[in-house]
User: What shape does this take?
Amino acid sequence: MSEFVKKSALGYRAVPGGHSDPECSHVILTKEEYDRILREKAQAEQGKRNTAYEAERAVKRAQDDALGRSRKAEEEARRSVEGMERELSAERAESAYQRRLNANLLRILKERANAGRNLKPKKEHTGYVVVSSAEKEHRYKDGSRQWRAVTLWETALQSPYSVDFTEEQARKQMLEELFQKDEGGDWTIQKIGITGDYGGGYAEMLGDKDWREDYHRYNVMLNRHLRANFRSGYWEIVFMHTKPLGVIPKDMRAR
Assistant: This one.
């Protein structure tokens, strides 16, 4: 059993108040008690080391798990991207094939239409011919809401596309081709003297600050619309324009 003592010049002397005695300066342990304390200390230190080791292992497992999940996510993302790239590549190839197929089909149809209308050379001809062009009085309201009149022209241009085409198909092809630029930077429709294009009407153009000062420098196409001519069997684009057409090339006159 442990003893609570006070150290003096003559050695150690027990204090009557035990552990709580203010004169207590030392505790004398039995060997068994001292060994037990050493064991408990060693166990505590080992427990501390075990706890630290387990904590390190837990952190390492968490890091490894996180790295594994990250790598798995990266791999899945890579596979997903590669899959989408393959699909996109296939779609692009299919789209390019369809465009080539459509271009070839349109070329064949245009050549047949040109041959049927005796337009030469059938392979190079644009397929567009002027059906009619007439002077017309056009009435419109000015900025003060007053009625005005101006002389415009109305032209009907026959396309190489039969009335078997839908309106949407015919419109897309005609507008793309008529305003497609050649090597010299000119539109196809400039062959007949149209040098400007405004999507609206005459009054709208006069109210448009970007056009009202300069429109007179051009022969401007206005109010365009499509017409299916079932007598001829072809779609036509009919439009107003601000000046008469130029001299129409012979190969672009309807026969």
Observations:
- Residues 129-252 form a domain with the Phosphorylase Kinase; domain 1 fold (CATH 3.30.200).
